[in-house]
Amino acid sequence: MKLPVSTEWVLHCATTLAQLEPGSSASAAQLAEYFDLPAPYLAKQLQTLVKAGVLTATTGPRGGFRLARPPSEITLLQIIEAVDGTSSPYECREIRQQGRGALPPEECQHTCILAEKMADAHEAWRRSLNAVTLADILASLPRWAPARTRSLLTGTGTA
């Protein structure tokens, strides 16, 4: 499975926002500069996270994005599904019923075993990502990382 590059962007941005002091925010421009990403496209992805209830956004000179809920209540799956959707990356087109090797319809009454196994794998992937919160990610970071992030991103904290 290959996810769009924007998936990496939003995962890193959400993790970065989780490292800020409570109530603090960062603009799309700050996050784009921090990661050297195209700001207009990143802003669209961040707005998608706002619509999904993962982030909140405020306007004005001190505006920007911040987590909508505590890091312990935001899973990696919620972030990924906000920008990539919930559908499985595998779509069975029933080619077992096509071509020279086509099986008759009566032999295809049950779900294709390959489609079944791919659906099982997708569900396992989703369960795994749903079991990891931003708080879990923060707990895995080096102790010095949040202060460095705050310092470089917003000019606060100590690096």
Tell me what the structure shows:
- The structure is a single chain.
- The chain is mainly alpha-helical.
- Strands 1-2 form a two-stranded antiparallel ribbon.
* Average pLDDT level: 92
Instruction: Tell me the helix content.
Output: 40-55%
CATH architecture: Orthogonal Bundle
Task: List segments where confidence is low: pLDDT < 50 over at least 5 consecutive residues.
Answer: none
Q: Gist?
A:
The protein has one domain: Arc Repressor Mutant, subunit A. 50% of the residues lie in helices and 5% in strands.
List the topology elements.
Elements: H1 5-18, H2 28-35, H3 39-51, E1 55-58, E2 64-67, H4 76-84, H5 113-130, H6 134-140, H7 145-154
Antiparallel strand pairs: 1-2
Helix pairs in contact: 1-3, 1-4, 2-3
Observed structural traits:
159 residues, mainly alpha, Arc Repressor Mutant, subunit A
